[in-house]
Amino acid sequence: MKVLTMQLLSTVVMDTVAYGGAACGIVIALNNALNNLRQGQVSRQGAIILILLAASYFLPMRQLGSYFHIGMNGMKASDHIFAFLDLPEKAAGQTSLPKKWP
Description:
The protein is mostly helical. The radius of gyration is 27 Å and the shape is rod-shaped. It starts with a helix and ends in a 17-residue tail after the last helix. The protein is 75% helix and 0% strand. It is built from 3 helices and no strands.
């Protein structure tokens, strides 16, 4: 549960930075692209490409953080598996049945 809480908080921070940065980038690129489009320095297709590139600039950081958390969940699961496998076993013939056996 502790890992899940940390993952959720970290994802909220990464989403805020990634999507907030993407939104700021879109606004700046849109402003610059429209100004350059009005002045004739860039074509309409160039302005659209600038806007789309600004939107995808921060998203790889968010994806990397997501992969990190997936890996950490896998490592925590493997710790539980290895802890289970390391449990001591009773020797053969030392297991007793319950007294009320049908």
